Amino acid sequence: MAEEKWVVMVTAQTPTNIAVIKYWGKRDEVRILPINDSISVTLDPDHLCTLTTVAVSPSFDRDRMWLNGKEISLSGSRYQNCLREIRSRADDVEDKEKGIKIAKKDWEKLHLHIASHNNFPTAAGLASSAAGFACLVFALAKLMNVNEDPSQLSAIARQGSGSACRSLFGGFVKWNMGNKEDGSDSVAVQLVDDKHWDDLVIIIAVVSSRQKETSSTSGMRESVETSLLLQHRAKEVVPVRILQMEEAIKNRDFTSFTKLTCSDSNQFHAVCMDTSPPIFYMNDTSHRIISLVEKWNHSAGTPEIAYTFDAGPNAVMIARNRKVAVELLQGLLYCFPPKPDTDMKSYVLGDTSIVKEAGLEGELPQGIKDKIGSQDQKGEVSYFICSRPGRGPVVLQDQTQALLHPQTGLPK
Fold first, then answer.
1. Measuring CA to CA, which residue among 187, 171, 186, 204 is closest to residue 392?
2. Which of 123, 196, 235, 342 is 20 to 30 Å from 383 by CA-CA measure?
3. Is the pTM of this model over 0.85?
4. What is the pLDDT of residues 2-61, one digit of tens each?
């Protein structure tokens, strides 16, 4: 290994995911092993993603990490577990252009710099830790020439954040809970890719981007210890729903998909209420959005929109096609208008072409008014994000997108 002060870097982009059959509760807190299977949809990384640059250099004196521009500690067990597992699988790396060789045995001695940035709020119930740990593991695996498939890598990412294992694939993804004590069979697998059901449009109402009062980790622990409903859910309800959901996704059966998605979200929040003390992740605006979607589907005579809420008040609405999504956005903006001084460009993010199609000038069409019913109170929404099912992680070749400086390995 050459003695000069070189820096080798990799930058990766990883999507976030939204569970349609929820993961809630661990049977092993250290290895992060769940008490039930779960299924998620990966969101288009152009709209919601984590960008991570990882660098190695003999000049680094310790492992360091910066998240959204701020240096954070890597001493936590979740980071340490991921770093240990990846380092143990590292292989020889050669950069012929720079004349750098890193032998397999050198990885134990070399230190890393990691910079990570989410293009959406951290810890607000938008699965930021899932995208973050998935991106960390994916980028490090590329840097260290780790020869493992995405499912094997998912078992490492899982040790950082359970849901992270599902962000190593695009499309619809299943996390198998596994049965082995060591967790080696608790891995994610792709059910279908992002092109399989590309009619779907996803609209997220960010009701609050504040950090939640009860973290998912402590919430799960309390539910496992105190909720009888959770035990029933894990043993009796989820195994049946998983099979039904796999079938609905395979057949693009939106009616079954909606019924399962909404029911599972509602049961997850019922488990939170059944926990002692009860956990409230949703708020009045969340409940108003549920009511709006239920009225809409009833009025349409067939399910056109599914809703799901993770551990936070933000609503994820999945429209069966673009036409429905355009009408839904019109209805949402009528019920939850931006404040007078808010620019529409900062109120609807992501795939903004839907805003153009929604043609927001003039009166709301009567057909949409009929679907949403009377909406007297104006709710509180910070902003909307329009997205769709998306691909899995990728390495970014464009060095200008790196978050660390190529000469120093420090944040730009």
1. 171
2. 196
3. yes
4. 456 899 999 999 999 999 999 999 999 999 999 999 999 999 999 989 999 999 999 999
pLDDT per residue as tens digits for the range 287-320:
999 999 999 999 999 999 999 999 999 999 999 9
Nearest residue to 203 via CA among 348, 56, 46: 348
Beta strands in 193-333 (DSSP E): 201-206, 305-308, 315-319
For residue 154, give the 3-state DSSP assignment.
helix
Q: What is the DSSP letter of 235?
A: I
Backbone phi and psi for residue 10, each to the nearest 5 degrees, phi listed first: -135, 135
Q: 205: which strand partners?
A: 315, 384
Q: What is the pLDDT of residues 190-212, one digit of tens each?
A: 999 999 999 999 999 999 766 77
Rounded-to-integer distance, Cα 45 and Cα 131, Å:
10
Cβ–Cβ under 8 Å, residues 42 and 194:
yes
Q: Measuring CA to CA, which residue among 127, 150, 118, 124 is closest to residue 51?
A: 118
Question: Cα 93 to chain center, whole Å?
Answer: 31
Q: Phi, psi at residue 104, to the nearest 5°?
A: -50, -45
Q: How far apart are CA 354 and CA 253, in angstroms?
A: 24
